[in-house]
Amino acid sequence: MRKTSIGIGLIGIGIIGGAVARVLRDRADRLSAQVGVPVELRRVKIADIDLTRPIIAEFPRELFTTDEVDFWATPGIDIVVEAIGGEFPAFNYLEKALRSGKHVVSSNKEVIAKHAAELLDLSRKNNVGLRFEAAVGGGIPLLQPFQYDLSANEIKGIFAIINGTTNYILTRMAREGIEFSEALKQAQSLGYAERNPANDIEGFDSVYKLSIMSMLAFQTEVKPDDIYREGITKLEARDFKYAEELGFVIKLLAIAKESEGEIELRVHPVFLPRDYFLAKVDGVFNAVLTTGDLVGDVIFSGQGAGPAPTSSAVVADVLASAQEAASGVGNRMRWRLDGGKRLRPMADITTRYYFRLNVADKPGVLAHIAGIFGDNNISISSVIQKEVDETTESAEVVIMTHPARESAVRRAVEALDRLDTIKAVNNFIRVGI
Amino acid sequence: MRKTSIGIGLIGIGIIGGAVARVLRDRADRLSAQVGVPVELRRVKIADIDLTRPIIAEFPRELFTTDEVDFWATPGIDIVVEAIGGEFPAFNYLEKALRSGKHVVSSNKEVIAKHAAELLDLSRKNNVGLRFEAAVGGGIPLLQPFQYDLSANEIKGIFAIINGTTNYILTRMAREGIEFSEALKQAQSLGYAERNPANDIEGFDSVYKLSIMSMLAFQTEVKPDDIYREGITKLEARDFKYAEELGFVIKLLAIAKESEGEIELRVHPVFLPRDYFLAKVDGVFNAVLTTGDLVGDVIFSGQGAGPAPTSSAVVADVLASAQEAASGVGNRMRWRLDGGKRLRPMADITTRYYFRLNVADKPGVLAHIAGIFGDNNISISSVIQKEVDETTESAEVVIMTHPARESAVRRAVEALDRLDTIKAVNNFIRVGI
């Protein structure tokens, strides 16, 4: 059953696909030596053969095709690498590849997060591999460790700074005291944020990545819609100022926690104690802390994103697939989705909270607030009256709570909103992990 | 070729072996589900069946044997787990297992560091796996990433705090201003250092681990004797005091750096800039920073050591071996030792240095010192005269250099030693990575 060479078909030759194509060409000898037989890029499917694009001009014209039928008919393609991103038509390509008995490598977090169960099932039925290490954390090894190194553990938690754009924005806000819109502009001008940044700043990107990590860690299907999501757009300079005064930093975390057979899954800003490891991960760096019941805490960190790091992960997956294809082994993944964990509703989580309220500067207001918290079984750990604005006769009040249930906090916020003396619940942010 | 069950033979049931035996027993269902067939501990070879030991009383008496012939004759053993440590007889057991066509899992850094090439060769010839993830960093995934996730990269560097005992001692010395002997005593009383601590404090343990990581990263044989080694016993409280004044911390690092086809390999104390990631890794924590040409810097960190984390790594290797054994695949490692990197002699490395000298408190001494540095082409970046001891008419002088060649520094130290006005070269420590 051993093959004498391994052929790769690549779909898309944008920034990631281009980097992958170059690594496969420039390191062909090294990669082939690892697999034991030549590993070759045999065909590239693209939308438009624009010969003025440098990446296209670098390769022989006949490597490229715009025709799908032609691409799938190319002989000797054992592995399909998908590098176009997005849900469709990527899903259709992955499905087609698996059904055709080709190993699949993808760097596409959205399609994997949304269609993991179906794709996994297809890969099993067709006895081929399905790999997507590059979909989370770029080049940082994050998925393989769950499948291999940590596989004897019950995973108890994942705490991740997994989106470089938002971490860069939060770092600027913390360091410079600027508002979100200004920090976003800076990130955009430096190329760290896209012109349409919703995917990052609204937390979708982190949700996709958490969904994928959780499926591997807990062997349980997690759809993006199952994950509570809150982006960073509501954070204000004042929140950072108060966080610092209280000994915290603000980070957008992706959190998965297991207890009593349930997992809670959420992406939102978090007040982290300043000395905590993840609190010190700044700029475009990514870091994932995971807790296994045997291994304790393990941390993976790095810059991760970008074409070269992403190609590092894609080509690692290509090598593993090539080795399986060459030896005729077929699907050897130990990933299953029958872990049977229940997903905990967001209303049932328990954590501490930070509140920033704008209140009327009148006697008795604090008693009203304390009453509402008390009615909802929320225990207050500190109340600090910050700025008083004499023109509007209002004051800013910061409240830190002891651990409380999210559902109780939601009820308290509604009650606060109804109170005349509360002008606004400016923000409430979860504290700690 | 598919097997209907996988049997494990364990050699040694000490702290690590005991933890492994318990995980294999307590998680049998979970592990078997991952492999697809039952995975069972079938025999344990020990030196003495002491029924008063709790770990032995926990298992059926007939699981144990003290007889080697009996152990190897046990039917249905596909995987041998070695958990006795040390070079011999561990090597003989590993050799015997591989020659008998059994997959091998070991947590033994010394035997792997010293005999990797021979064992790898045997594993190839007998088409079985050879795995030892637990040998470096306990449960922290460190070796598999070099073999899988980073396999498309040229590794440019490894910078590791990889021995918890020494890092604990250095952390205490830095925080409390105490001397080495006092910090060692504290570490011993807490169980963080052994009664005979030479293996840790003299750097042997770090050397074994660096040797193993380097062989995987550079695909080149590295014997422990190829690695320059300096422990932490010469460090004094004053070195920590001056380091702090100058903005540094002192860590015992294991360093492998590749450039121009050569690798330099060394374990010794290093002055690290305070803000540097590895400078902040304190106590018994381990951390490895590795640089790949595609991925950039990637960090792995965790507490690592101890029976549970080590069993996490051993059982991960058992699962991978079991999967190969069950599917009849045989050896699938991509690890080779034909990378052909040359090892750079220590005399040829270039780095900055810190010197602490005890000199006569007389005019002209600094000129003498400067003359010797100049003669050896070592450029001084700062000279600070610290304490003066009037009773001995001596002064302590701290010198920081610009990058210089190790051979030049060695010559300068010899010349300083010959100078009457230099009472002692108390220490010289390499600066930065």
From TrEMBL, chains A, B:
Q: Which pathway is it part of? A: Amino-acid biosynthesis; L-threonine biosynthesis; L-threonine from L-aspartate: step 3/5; Amino-acid biosynthesis; L-methionine biosynthesis via de novo pathway; L-homoserine from L-aspartate: step 3/3
Which segments cross the bilayer? Answer: 6-24
Its recorded name reads: Homoserine dehydrogenase
Q: Where is the ACT domain?
A: 354-430
The keyword RNA-binding is annotated on this UniProt entry:
no
Native organism is Dehalogenimonas alkenigignens
Keyword list, A-Z:
Amino-acid biosynthesis, Membrane, Methionine biosynthesis, NADP, Oxidoreductase, Sodium, Threonine biosynthesis, Transmembrane, Transmembrane helix
Asked whether the UniProt record includes Amino-acid biosynthesis among its keywords, one would answer: yes
| Binding locations of NADPH | 109
- The record's active-site residues are 209 (proton donor)
**Which example biological process does GO assign this protein?**
methionine biosynthetic process
Reactions catalysed, as given in the entry: L-homoserine + NADP(+) = L-aspartate 4-semialdehyde + NADPH + H(+)
What positions does the entry give for NADP(+) binding? 11-18
- SUPFAM superfamilies found in the cross-reference section: ACT-like (SSF55021), Glyceraldehyde-3-phosphate dehydrogenase-like, C-terminal domain (SSF55347), NAD(P)-binding Rossmann-fold domains (SSF51735)
